[in-house]
Amino acid sequence: SGPETVSPTGQATGDNPARMAQSGPYLTTAQGARLYDSDHSLKAGPRGPVLLQDHHLREKITHFDHERIPERVVHARGAAAHGVFRGYGTASNISKAAFLAKDVETPVFVRFSTVLGSRGSADTVRDTRGFATKFYTEEGVFDLVGNNIPVFFIQDAIKFPDIVHAAKPHPDREIPQAQSAHDTFWDFVTLHTEATHHTLWNMSDRGIPRSLRMMEGFGVHTFRLVNAEGASTLVKFHWKPKLGVHSQVWEEAQMACGFDPDFHRRDLADAIEAGAFPQWELGVQTFPDNPEQMFEGIDLLDPTKIVPEELAPVRTIGLMTLNANPSNYFAETEQVAFHVGNMVPGVDVTNDPLMQGRLFSYVDTQLTRLGGPNFPQLPINRTHAPVNDMLRDGMHQTAVHRGVAPYRPNSLDAGCPFLAGEDTAAFIEVPVEVPESRKVRDAAASFDDHFSQARLFWLSMSPVEREHIVAAYTFELGKCYEQAVKERGLKSLARIDAQLCEQVATGLGLSAPAPEEPLADPRPSPALSQVGKVWPLD
Ligand code: HEM
């Protein structure tokens, strides 16, 4: 009497009839007692008071009263789809992960989201978008929990509550709900200048996608892949949409918000229903796993930095096709639980301090959001690999465990869990040197450069893209009440580019400050002989 199986699309097939949801010839209570009337409560006479003994009335209303669960603390608004990932086999020499092998097909569930708005907020706001993919691999679940912007606001997870508090609605007025949380948001990103690069991406056309089907996705952090020989390679993951990257201009987004606040989720669901299945290629940039964790002067552990594709090309390793809409929003899109730490053999983390904090945060929040430690048993979260863990009991336990000795080794149960060999196991640590043994609350000096890549991004923009960026900063900074915040915003812009700063200052009716420091040389100076030589997959 194990739990019911899960179809390739992640839906409960309900092969255990007792658990089939809401089917069968008769309406019943939750206990299976047949009902003859669900429209009238039990009363002492047709015009008399309602009787407490009406079990069906109490059950129906009690369950309804508890239908809502907390929305996600961030990324509350999302839309999702089922699909399939097919490996090209081109990554097999850098990762032993089975799902990357040639022509292996793996079911996936992808949830796209905005970061800041609540569950009922509008789709076409200026914000970062989440791009989270659950791969139900034969070796266990692998979650790639990324965004549509390749860098992040902060370098250390300890600041995550702070940036989210600054960007979420004001605690007194509960406005606004999008990226432009005005004074507190701009106060934060101008005082914590490592946020400059991400903020510039948000103010660019990337901040308002045309469609969820037309967004890139990024793993953001540097990951470590491990091959069958135990050799490791550092990588950055990229999703490249087959439909290309497209955006809405501000005016379009405003109209879409007004006409159809569900613009993006409707577009995704309609396209899939019509058979126009969106596709993305998964790609990696690869870097040698050297003790410095640097590449061409770029700190690979700093999540506010990209590695330009001119220095390390993105090479594709598989194709994802989204081909089925969820059949139940709550059971799938709302209850799905992603976690950076869900990894399979051949994929590992790095010392990026933002990534390390995420390893703690996701399960921790899901313990509250999904009511205890057994949410991996929910149909959408269930692995498609056999499970033989030693976990027991807890809120919302649905498994009926057998045996008396949930520890190993034990001499009492015949089916004592055994351990895999190192060749098939996940979480095999690569023996990486820990460079310092001294405890420090500090960051590497290479984390101090907050402006050079923002400048690189600005300089790569076309004239019309620059116009949009200037308009976005002018509008958003213009909404700040505090003059000091606007002025600090201009000081940040002065460190990106004089033209950008001057144009925004003009729009705000303020004077443009001079940069406090000389502008950084944005071009990492690669030894040209290195370019194109780092790719070990061919
Ligand atoms: C949710 C991405 C940084 C905490 C999410 C989701 C995505 C995401 C895509 C939505 C998952 C879904 O659709 O259910 C990222 C990226 C980050 C980042 C790309 C940086 C590179 C962080 C950090 C923390 C954090 C630093 C905390 C220390 C959370 C929490 C949720 C969340 C608590 C809600 C999860 C849930 O309720 O299931 N993040 N995030 N994130 N993130 Fe992050």
Essential attributes:
single chain, 538 residues, alpha+beta, ten-stranded antiparallel β-sheet, two-stranded antiparallel ribbon, 12 helices, 12 strands, 24% helix, globular, disordered N terminus, disordered C terminus, binds protoporphyrin IX containing FE
Outline type: globular
* Helical run tally: 12
Q: Give me the count of strands.
A: 12
The major sheet is characterized as: 10 strands, antiparallel
Helix content: 10-25%
Summarize the helix and strand pattern as letters. HEEEEHHHEEEHHEEEEHEHHHHH
Bound molecules: protoporphyrin IX containing FE
Low-confidence stretches: 1-18, 525-536
Gap from first CA to last CA: 48 Å
| Cα-atom radius of gyration | 26 Å
Beta-strand portion reads 5-15%
Mean pLDDT: 91
Supply the helix-strand structural class. alpha+beta
